[in-house]
Amino acid sequence: MLIQAEAIMKKYNKEAFHIQHAKTVSGVLGYFAKKHDPEREEYWRVVGMLHDTDFELYPDAHCVKGEELLKAEGISEDIIRSAMSHGWGLTATPYEPTHIMEKILFSVDELTGLIGAAALMRPSKSTLDMEPSSVKKKFKDKKFAAGCSRDVIKNGAEMLGWTLDELINETLLAMKEVEENAN
């Protein structure tokens, strides 16, 4: 199922950045699934892989056009709902994150971008030698990775009932695991 999801994502996304983002979010959701829903790890990974299927082609209709594209690809309603819920309050999606996986996706989508940008600024270009304090410093700098909404990240942590530090720490650990598994 994950291989099919990646093929669908690549059908609508050609830019290396978007493809890498989908793989990262998929891996991060897999990391969190092991802790919160281990029997459904692949499901979580599929949702992460498909969450931005429409973004490259339809940024102004994000999470709305995605639903249409994924339905046409035969993706189940539950996966579509979960994947599109990350746009709640930001796009015209009607899906509010209710399941823990949806709340984590909502929270980490922007945060993985911020952490990824911070990693690129390091001599190693890696998360593997990054400390949470480095992420927190970049988080406070509103000019750094300005496209990554700090409000969405904060709201996501609140939605989960986690502190911002917990969300940052766990997401960084998840990204380290993703990077280790990619090498």
Features:
mainly alpha
Structure, explained:
Helix content is 64%, strand content 0%. It is mainly alpha-helical and 183 residues long. Helix 3 packs across helix 5 and helix 6 (100-120) runs antiparallel to helix 8 (150-160).
What is the number of E strands?
0
Number of domains: 1
Low-confidence stretches: none
Mean pLDDT: 96
Content-based structural category? mainly alpha
At CATH level 2, the architecture is Orthogonal Bundle
Helical stretch tally? 9
Instruction: Report the order of strands and helices.
Output: HHHHHHHHH
Explain the layout of strands and helices.
Elements (H helix, E strand, L loop, with lengths): L1 H11 L3 H21 L4 H10 L14 H8 L4 H8 L15 H21 L11 H9 L9 H11 L3 H19 L1
Q: What's this entry about, in short?
A:
The protein is mainly α. It has helices at 2-12, 16-36, 41-50, 65-72, 77-84, 100-120, 132-140, 150-160, 164-182.
